Protein: glycine--tRNA ligase
Amino acid sequence: MVSYRSVALTTLLATLQPRSMFAFTPVASSAARRTALLRGASSIYSISSTARFMSTTDTAEEEKAAPTVIPNPEAYEKLKMEELVSLCKRRGFIFPSSEIYNGMAGFYDYGPLGAELKKNIKDAWWKHFVHGREDVEGLDSSIIHNPTTWKSSGHLDGFSDPMVDCKETKLRFRADQLFYAPVVLKESGERVGYVLVQEANDEDMMKDAKKQAKKLLKGTDNKGAEIEAFAFRDLTEATEEEMSEIPSPASGKPTLTMPRDFNLMFQTNVGAMSDEASVAYLRPETAQGIFINFKNAMGTSRAKIPFGIAQIGKAFRNEITPRNFIFRSREFEQMEVEYFIPPGDDVWEPFHKQWMEDSKDFLTSLGLREDLMGWDVHEGDGLAHYARACTDITFRFPFGVQELMGIAARGNFDLTQHSEGSGKNLDYFCDATKEKYIPHCIEPSLGVDRLFLALICSAYAEDEVGGEKRNYLSFSPKIAPVKVSVLPLLKNKEPLVKAARELYDKLRKRWNVSWDATGAIGRRYRRADEVGTPFCVTIDFDTIEKDGSVTVRDRDTTEQIRIPMEEVIPYLSKQIDGY
Ligand code: GAP
Structure:
């Protein structure tokens, strides 16, 4: 079957080449020397001097040309985090930070492909929310602010997580990520102890709890007895009496302290003296840099409310238990907008809704799988005291459904706090209504690294091409770290290499392009597929001896088309940039 994608390609090519349609057809090569190189993998296409052009009407031939691609829709369901972490390391997306010194928990380094992907994510966000809107301007504030900023914002007093220590092993845990339950015998109702499990998906938590309960009953008269269903509570709710029986996840004995607050801000000292007056903090969010620049940014851009200020930058949190790879790390990047709106009970809701929709549209425009996304509306205790509403966009990671980003209606809490803390007037004067007010704001806040992880998960794909299993990343061309790979058919044929090099140099002026001249062509395709390169352009003997045409291979369908060399850039432009 000719897939939907190949129809799209065909349509586009028809525009590029109104008279004759060029498509690739697989025919047995007479030149064994060349075809041998092409047999590196299952999608054996004979890109040889015997390949011929065919007309647009020759669809039967074209269908025959397509290798059998059998997608595996279950691939993501079976994907384990260890496999993802290993792929990221192996192909240069993400390395553990300072690995040669045994790493540093909660910190990661982005390799050559990771740096590209991260940059593409940030560029796409900036393009969408700053350049793409007339009512948003950008900002790049310093990471270290005057420490009073954090007093006013409430971070110094309240930006903490509940922590417990294991007195025996000295390990620390986040109390709200540990869940305990009494083990109660069904027959007698007697409580024989407690289990304690770390937050995970329901299945894993249950498995762990059952294992612990079994161990607890083993060697007692109750061995094998039936127990009540576990009633989990998070550890912040444990009483001192319960804590004296709850086992530590590290020692297996009741050696945990009672929970206490742990401030997540990283402290540093500014200047030569290391005294109290020199204490400063690495910002735990980019948002406060926006609030403290509200007057400057509004004034200089002569903006009128509603108006947003956007910022991308590093944030630091001394997470007690960084985990799940880059999902929760200690150093990460945020992309945040503070969108200032007039006050009023009936004003914020449509703006909040609009930012929720726009955030979702942005995420799907990057190729994020909609079927893995969801909404989580915060209510009651889940809502900060000053916030009117907060809705998260969630994503189903291999370790469960988790927050990807938040869209909050924050009222005017932050500007009011900074106005009081600094003694500066942060009112806005509305020319139209002659009203003076402290604006309220909507805050869409998204982590670059968390989105990076979600995009890799979304893109993870497996299929079978011509009978062989293939793993690849189906990144949207918009964010793919490498857009095109240029492959000269043979690396030791000077005219082939020269022609390929010329094309490569031209393409590099527009996109990040890779050059791959070694190994069988099939193996080279696999290498490109595994890192999510959407297009491979192969320069073969027809290119240099016959008609100057090249083949362009599509990563997802593995289909190949033949187009004239001069059409490569317009064709790829349309595919990658959409114009
Ligand atoms: N200004 C609001 C704010 O910072 P948040 O929910 O704490 O809100 C917003 O963070 C987003 O930043 C999260 O939805 C997530 O994408 C990202 N994020 C937060 N903590 C993170 C961490 N430790 N590691 C990676 N990303 C994080």
Summary: DSSP finds 19 helices and 27 strands in the chain. The chain has three domains: 73-143+272-457, 160-263, 482-577. The pocket of glycyl-adenosine-5'-phosphate is lined by residues 285, 287, 317, 319, 328-329, 332, 334, 336, 403-406, 443, 445-447, 449-450 (CB under 6 Å).
